[in-house]
Amino acid sequence: MKKLINSVDTVLSESLQGLLATHGDILSLGEDFKFVRRRDVVRTKVALISGGGSGHEPLHVGFVGRGMLDAACPGQVFTSPTPDQMVAAVDAVSGAPGTLFIVKNYEGDVMNFEMAAEMVAGPVASIIVDDDIAVKTSPHSTGRRGVAGTLAVERIVGAAAEQGRDLETLAALGRTVNMRTRSMGVALTSCTVPAVGRPTFSLGEDEMEMGVGIHGEPGCRRQRMASADEIADELLTPVLDDLAPPRGTPCLLIVNGFGGTPMMELYLMANSAARILAAHGLILARSLVGSFVTSLEMAGCSLTVTTMDEEALALWDSPVHTAALRWEAPGLAQA
Amino acid sequence: MKKLINSVDTVLSESLQGLLATHGDILSLGEDFKFVRRRDVVRTKVALISGGGSGHEPLHVGFVGRGMLDAACPGQVFTSPTPDQMVAAVDAVSGAPGTLFIVKNYEGDVMNFEMAAEMVAGPVASIIVDDDIAVKTSPHSTGRRGVAGTLAVERIVGAAAEQGRDLETLAALGRTVNMRTRSMGVALTSCTVPAVGRPTFSLGEDEMEMGVGIHGEPGCRRQRMASADEIADELLTPVLDDLAPPRGTPCLLIVNGFGGTPMMELYLMANSAARILAAHGLILARSLVGSFVTSLEMAGCSLTVTTMDEEALALWDSPVHTAALRWEAPGLAQA
């Protein structure tokens, strides 16, 4: 295992300190590294709190800031945060309008956020994100897993929270965005959890894991390496079959690298994906290409489609200022 | 070789099409993929044009836009663009105030930009960026190589060009920024050029290449893997020795991943680097952490320090809108 670390015990705490050294203008760190929060706490709005195992950066800590999350609770690598972390985050950022938990659908995360919800005083609601259509169940989840589509939920609901909408409205919006979001991923290599020290799985020289999860969980099949166009088609066909959007629907496309994939390949995949969307008569209204929901140094990518309406587009375009996403004004994918 | 591509011959053109599908609001593509340019051409300012071999994305094409480059000419992977590309870019974006070429110090790039400078009509000046202090010469360069510090030059000079400064002033500013910028990198793995199909070099299970170039060129020594703190120290000590900044100097720190390095490790390296700067009595005034000047899927990172003054800080903070860097307002590293 070759990694830029000092010791497996301090990977998380040192990485969070580095995040703070880089983004101290917008972020603060909770005691004992329990959470990362917005530096400018706004207790007059619903607080959005997410979290999960680390190793997926920039998700979630890189999505904390104006127009997205109010706090994120980082667990150890690929390990759920504990309920006391969420409780501490609520204490730090939530006010009378309450708290919305955004939870990826993994058993540990769901259970710990549920426990936290029972422990806090004010109003709390939760959204479970389960956008990964590759498998029905997995070693870590009952039902579909939450993967890169979480970004779309956090961004769109985060924008709406910034506008002052109430808890019930935001929870409903989040569930709608989740229902309109599907993802599927492929791995070309494994990743190595620091505390384990060896690759999570192994792939042959000419193999890929189709439908892989973001912890390197098995996908739906292992198959021979294929071309980018074929891979894009294998990833997007089930996504579009499941969403079944009418022709002319505006879509958000997220081409997400898993951590070890060059930008050159991600843009190439974006080109393949854009052609497929066009062939289905869909509008590529917004797109995001980069490594946003990662699996340490895993090579591969996922494709996410969220079907958008006028409201979702306006929320997506509104100002956001986090470590990983930042804009003031709309950016059209194809102007 | 496992890559998300269709064929080695079309990697560049398909990747550029994907870039355009994603950022068509701010970018346009030249005929025959000769260049990527700002969509809104401003011929009343000095045009900044850069370029170089592809495989380093987002450099340079991801740095085209308001407040940075007016155009970038992408060569094939790790191969210089040809003079006709620069000439076509000048035709497309330059006006009476002239053109400034920003060139990384590699023999092919320097030669081809020089030839282009002789072929175009209007005023032209060039800046050679040579921030890599690892080696005095290399297989591709006479003198120091141009690496991640190119980002600092393109950003600061790009901001000044946007303010309407003249060609001579901008060239002088660029040379000053280059002189105040030093970088050094380390590789934990090799990368594979698509057209070659096998890794550029090989490293043992416990080895790293200290001082590696961004094409996988040999560095100054191959050594046993070390801790993040030790690596940060080995990278920054020569950088700071060479720059010899007085205590209290405000610095820009760039922690740059080479393409296969997780964000978690880059933030951890940022933490190590920030501690070293503090120990030298330097001010971490601005910092940037991410994969900006890459070597395909190589694992490893480089550290860049630019010593800043009030002018450089103001230019750094001014609005920028490119595919890879985007902000409207200042962002302090430590507010």
UniProtKB/TrEMBL annotation, chains A, B:
Protein name as catalogued: Dihydroxyacetone kinase subunit DhaK
Gene designation per UniProt: dhaK
Single GO term (MF): glycerone kinase activity
Organism of provenance: Oleomonas cavernae
Sequence ranges assigned to domain DhaK in this UniProt record: 7-327
GO CC entries: cytosol
PANTHER family xref list: TRIOKINASE/FMN CYCLASE, TRIOKINASE_FMN CYCLASE
Enzyme class, first EC level, given as a word: transferase
GO annotation, biological process: glycerol catabolic process
Family matches, as Gene3D superfamilies: Dihydroxyacetone kinase, domain 1, Dihydroxyacetone kinase, domain 2
SUPFAM superfamilies named among the record's database cross-references: DAK1/DegV-like
Keywords per UniProt: ATP-binding, Kinase, Nucleotide-binding, Transferase
Coiled coil: none
InterPro entries named in the record: DhaK_1 (IPR012736), DhaK_dom (IPR004006), Dihydroxyacetone_Kinase (IPR050861)
EC number assigned by the record: 2.7.1.121
Database matches in Pfam families: Dak1
